[in-house]
Each structure stands twice: as C-alpha cells, then as structure tokens.
Amino acid sequence: MADLRNPILPVADPAYIPIPDDDTTTNLGRRFSTRNYSNKLLSSLFTGLILVGLLLAMGNKKSTHTSIPVEEDKILTQPPMSRGKPLGVSEKSNQQLTMRDYEWNDMMLSWQRTAFHFQPKNNWMNDPNGPLFYKGWYHFFYQYNPNGAVWGDIVWGHAVSKDLIRWTHLPLSMIADQWYDVNGVWTGSATFLVDGKIAMLYTGSTNESVQVQCLAYPANHDDPLLLDWVKYSGNPVLVPPPGIGPKDFRDPTTAWMTSTGKWRFSIGSKIHRKGIALIYDTQDFIHYEQLNVTLHGVQGTGMWECVDFYPVSTTHSDGLDTSANGPDVKHVLKASLDDDRHDYYALGNYQEETGEWVPDNPEIDVGIGIRYDYGVFYASKTFYDPIKKRRVLWGWVGEMDSEAADVKKGWASLQGFPRTVAMDTKTGINLIQWPVEEVESLRLRKQEFKDVELKPGMVAPLDIQFGASQLDIVAEFELQKEVVLNSTTFDEEFSCSESKGAAHRGALGPFGILVLSEESLIEKTPVYFYIVKAKNGTLSTFFCADQSRSSLATDVNKLIYGSYVPTLEGEKYSMRILVDHSIVESFAQGGRTVITSRIYPTKAINENAKLFLFNNATEAGIKTSLQVWQMNSANVPASKSTKGGPKLDIVIFFSLLYLVLNFDQFCDKSLGFHF
Amino acid sequence: MTTPKLFNLTAAFISLSLFLSSSSADGATATSLITGTCKQTPDFNLCVSTLNANPRGPKAAGVQTLALIIIDAVKAKATTAYADLKRLLKTAPELEGPLKSCAEQYNVILTAEIPEAEEAVSGGVAKFGEDGMRGSASGADLCEDGFVKVKSPLTAENKAVSGLAAVGAAVIRQLE
C-alpha cells in the first residue's frame, strides 16, 4: 500500500540538480548538429571539438567534489511491494512462492549476463566442485546441465584461469557414463596427495538413485590443463553406511592428513532432523574406515550438504593448508542446509585424537548461527592456494527470477566472485571475506567523492561518467556525533528481512547507496546501514540489501536481506559493493558481513542504470566519502594499455587529428556520410 | 441350539466383518500417510483425491512415492492443457497472442520443469523438485493472466495445473 503522504519521487523535478563535474566530453557527440555548413568549416569545428574533448579526457583522471547540491526533502518511503500469494508452504522457503513472469525482452535478458563473474556460455550451473591450483593454472569444476537451463542431467563442467577472473572453458571433465553415476555426477572435492598427485572424490547418483562416493584422478598428471579424468575401476569406493539413508550421503570434502599418516575427510548427512558430518579415514582413497563418532552434529538443522572443514590462523590472515593444525589454529566447520538453502559456519577446535570438532560458542553452532552470506549464496567450497597463501571461497549464486525466464534467456546461475576467507583477528569470533585482490586488475576509470553531507531524508544522484552496471564501489560513512549522542530512540527491535527495507526510517538509519537505480527511482536497489542505539548508549550496526523495489517485474525476488555486523570502537561504517549486471555483492566492515543479491531491472539497465547516495534517517545527518571504479569485462584480454592511459590517449589524438585534417578527401570520395 | 441357517448367517456375518475390518485397516495405514502429507498442502481435498485415484497412492510406503504421483498428475494435466491450446490456436485465431504465450509457458513446464521435478525427487535432492513444481504453477498462472480483455478459454486447465503443482511443491517440501 502506498503511503500517500510521501509520494513517489517525480520523474522530472525542477529542483533536481545532478552533481556538477568537470568532464563534459560525454555530451559532445549529442550536441553535434548536422546543419549545412561547408565541409572545411565543419571539419575545423569537428577538429576543435575533438581536440578539446581529448584534452579534457587526458587531463581528467578523477573528479573530486566537495559539495553536491541535493534534493531537499526527498523521502524514500514507498513500502515494499507485496510478496505474492502464500501457498501454505513453509516460510523457510527462500523464493517467491508464486512467481509470475514478466514480459522479458532480449535487451533486458541479455543485460543480465555478467561481465566478470564465472558462468558457462549457456545452460544451468550449480555447486562449485574440486577447485584447485595445479601447474600454473587455477582449475574450476562445477555442476552443469548440458541440456537445459534448469537443474538436471548433471555432469562436471571445467574451466581454467591464471588469475581467477579470466576463464577458458574446457570440455566436460566427467560425464554420467557409469552405472554408479548415471543419475548424476554430483559434488566432490580434490585432495593433493603427498606426491602432489590429485585424488578427486565425488558423489555419484546410481542407476537406482543411491548416493555413493567415487574416486577419480587425472588421466595425465603432466597435463597442466587436466583435460582428461579417469574413474577408478573399483568405484564406488563408499556406499551409505548402516543407519544412513541412501539419499542422505553426499558431497565429500577435501581430506586432511592426520598424525597417524592417514587421510581423513567428511561427508554430510542427517539422522532424523539432526544434521551431521560423518568422518572416514583412508590411506589409499580406495579403502575406508568410518569413525564411530561424527565430526559434529546439530539437532534440528536437517540435511547437511556440501560440508567444508578447514583450518584458519588465529594470528594472521594468510590461508592455511587443509592439513594444518597447531596452537594458533582454529577450524571452521561449514554446512549448506538443505532446508533453507543457506550456508552456515562456526569456529571451533578440532580434537584430532577424538576426531571431533567442538564449537567455540554452541549458541551460534553450525546451522543456527553465522552465515557466509545473507543473500543468495549456497553450496560453497574453499580451497587452499599455495602460491598466494590464501584460502579462496567459491559459492553458487542461483537465479532469483522465474525458471521460464531462465529458459528464455538460455542460462541460469553464477558463481560468486572468489573471496579470500580468514579469521577476523580483531573480533576473533567471525571470518572476514574479501574479493580476491585480482579484482583490482579489472578497474578502469575512477571517480571520487569526498565528504559529501546528506541531511535526513536526502537522495543525491552521483554523476558517474561511465556505465553503472559494472562497478567497484568503496564507501565510508559517519553519522553526526551530537545527534547520535542525544538521540532518545532506544532498543528498537530490528531485522533487515522483517523491516520495510530502505523505506523503514529510524533515527540513525537507513543510509547508504542505491545501485542499479533508474533516474526517477522507480527501480532501485538500496544497500545500506541501519544503526540501533541501546539505552546505555551502545550502537548496533545492521547491514541490508533491499530488493523490494529493484524491478517493476513481478516474477523476481523482492526480499530484503541482511544481518547485524560487528562494528568496533572508532570504526567508520564502511561498505564495498561489486556491481556486475544482475549480481550485486555487498561487503560491510571489511567483509565481516556479506550480502549477495540478484537484481533484474526492467528499466535500470544499460545507460539507464544510475547510482545514488541516500540518507533516509529521521534524525542524523551523514558524511560520506566514496570511490567508484568502472570495471572492465573479464572477457576482454588483460591489456597493458589500460595501465598506460596517457600514451594511448596521445595515439588516439594524433590518429583522429590525421583523419580530421584529411576530412575533405574522405568526403570527396563519398564514403557515405554527408552533412 | 442354533439352526444350520442361523449358523451360516452368523458365520457369514463374522467373515464379512473380518474381511471389512482387515481391508479398512490396510486402507487406514495408507490413508494416514496420505492424510498426514496432504494436511501440509494448500489443497487437502485435491491432494487426497489425486493420490487415492492412483493405485500406487494408498499402497505408498513413503512421501517420495506420493510426490512422484503428484508430479505425474501434473504432467497429465499439463499435457491436456497443451493439447487444448494447440487445438484453440487453430479454431480461435483471434486469441493467437495470449495462446502463443501460453504455448511458451507450457513448453517450459513440459520440457524443463516437470522433468526437473521427476529427476530431483527420484534422486533425493528435493529442493530442485520444489523449484520445478513452483515454476509449473506460476507458468499456468501466467498463461491465465495473459487473457486480459477476453475470457480465458483455458481457465479450467490452468487452474488444474496450478493447483496441483502447488500441492506438489508442498508435498516435496516434506522430503527436505
């Protein structure tokens, strides 16, 4: 229901003033008229404009603004649209229950493909499989349907990269050609043996749909591309043990070395409603002994899929090999909960002698506590990169539109941008996730905005000189200190998902950034902070991403995602956002809380996607500084000229000058353009 | 001091009672699975009648079988709807626009979403089955919504698919 006191922002408003900037080159082309001047006059005019334009382009590497005229009293209060008719299905279901299709056209659909996220050329993808680094290449395998844009007929796709960003797609590494995996070559993980060889364990769904574990290995260990794989002739090497259901036994982890010299790994399962991680020991990956204890289990969490188990250092932020252990090491146990399609992790201590892992804090145990990501992120898996000494996290980011739209556009699903994971040494109770540093190689032009002040209720358009569909945004916010101190709104119960999104006004929030937003704000995606003050004065920070007004389409997810994020004394509120067409990844406080969103605008696409700052708090003003980078496409080969900017500009300048000075000749030869 | 006739009558009565009670005891076990499952769906009656109409229904040992029966029933309804709309494309050319959109939707339902649901439920990865059923329901809804200014000639078929697919999603949910 619309709140009539606060109407939707007008499309054309005389008070609307875009942020001024020094760079006017983008307007030159449009201002060029085709009136009937003589060629010579025209060509000199053309030259002059080009020269001016190029000089400005060369000189203007970044714009710095100290003041931005803003719209007064523009209030974002449209309530979120209704979420669709409930069907009596459990509320834990993540998606819209009735997803009505919209008239998607080719332009809207083709815009949705990402520029720098992993996705195959077409069809369906889900879980990441067996990620590893080998002989100079990062390898990525994934659950893939070669026959359509919905889940089914699952086999292993394969791609390689030198930098985790630019991928070369290779032929399928494993297909469903054995009785034990004919109904699906499902998820698995890689282990590096002592001699450097790779053992890949994966789940096969047999001809009777029983879930079994199978061993595969490279056909040729000298091939850096690992093109061909061999399935062990004695597969399956593991079948569901007594007491475990034949369809509750899947997704083996990477193995770690124990002090007895045996390898140990885990497989998720469940017993009634208790999600558990089974453990097995092996010396050869062919014969296994199941331990009579589980690594861990948590009542009420249901089936644990895609278990992951790895050590993190408590003192530094480098990654550790999966077999590492010691006094300054904690272990992360992670599970994907089938019930709610979320990935949960907990920190704890691994007791190798007993084989068990014990959480540091049972109240936020696996499945009932912290999530890697409060948006769309599932079946995630880490691997250790020994070259850069980091642990890298991959995660499946599914679609949040309708299956019919997926079939129409011919593909479904992305992988999250690879992130490093490490202990947050400042808090000691959570992990930090951050896009891998190679992301910076995609940065092109930058615009900076310093010390922008927004009063309560304000929206400020950011005049970005490049498209707003491919961005890396780093922003810091501060609230007015005296307002925070004197505010008497206390102890508000708040949760992102149960709030009204960015329209939910509080004394100290929401404030943040509108991404993928249309000029009139009829479509917008707020990513923001919401601060709650307690009676004793302490502040709690919430970080949310609001999909409720992200699209006029009625068949896309309109939920609001987010979570509490720990903020330490003296820290500003900081966020980083990667925008890549239909995926938006938002990181708060250096990666303490992450939200991945899928956005499907009908209007805010291509040149109509814009960026705004906003402050919808009722009491506090904010001050913010941000940097916005234009992001290159990963499909463009990494060229060195992007770094040698001025040199390239000079080459263009002289080429154009030559062209223009010889304009007469071109015109006389009637090349087809006349004025 | 019973007469032969009375003896026969009593024997007949006792055997009849035993026969009736034993068959209803089996029926009660299967029915309680169906009843318990269908109570957690948006249309209890549709769920029960669909499951009972299939000979495998009352004998089903678990929810997975019930889910597969519902998916089969959705497939049957969708196939009928598709046949009807193909016929209408010939006989009602004035409705070509919305009918073609319907054909697109039912194509997705029959070639992508129902096979997805079957494979997922058989394989024990129920969530993809749920996706397939919910997608089928919304596809039928969209077909119906496409008839904006005219009365839809496919209302009965669309409602059948939509209602049953919603039941299917709810049954599959219980497998997770």
UniProtKB/TrEMBL annotation, chain A:
GO cellular component terms listed in the entry, alphabetical order: vacuolar lumen
Main location: other
Pfam families, per database record: Glyco_hydro_32C, Glyco_hydro_32N, INV_N
GO terms of biological process kind: carbohydrate metabolic process
Xref: Gene3D superfamilies: Exo-inulinase, domain 1 (2.60.120.560), Glycosyl hydrolase domain, family 43 (2.115.10.20)
Pathways involved: Glycan biosynthesis; sucrose metabolism
InterPro entries: Beta-fructofuranosidase_N, ConA-like_dom_sf, Fructan_Metab_Enzymes, Glyco_hydro_32, Glyco_hydro_32_AS, Glyco_hydro_32_C, Glyco_hydro_32_N, Glyco_hydro_beta-prop_sf
Compartment(s) where it occurs, according to its Swiss-Prot or TrEMBL record: Vacuole lumen
Top-level enzyme category: hydrolase
Protein name: beta-fructofuranosidase
Annotated organism of origin: Linum trigynum
Lineage of source species: Eukaryota, Viridiplantae, Streptophyta, Embryophyta, Tracheophyta
Automatic annotation (TrEMBL), chain B:
Matching InterPro entries: C/VIF1 (IPR034087), Invertase/methylesterase_inhib (IPR035513), Pectinesterase_inhib_dom (IPR006501)
Occurrences of domain Pectinesterase inhibitor (ranges): 29-171
Leader sequence residues: 1-25
Top-level taxon in the UniProt lineage: Eukaryota
One of the record's GO molecular function terms: enzyme inhibitor activity
Gene3D superfamilies assigned: Invertase/pectin methylesterase inhibitor family protein (1.20.140.40)
Keywords: Disulfide bond, Signal
SUPFAM superfamilies hit by this protein: Plant invertase/pectin methylesterase inhibitor
Family under the similarity heading: Belongs to the PMEI family.
Protein name in UniProt: Pectinesterase inhibitor domain-containing protein
Organism listed in the record: Linum trigynum
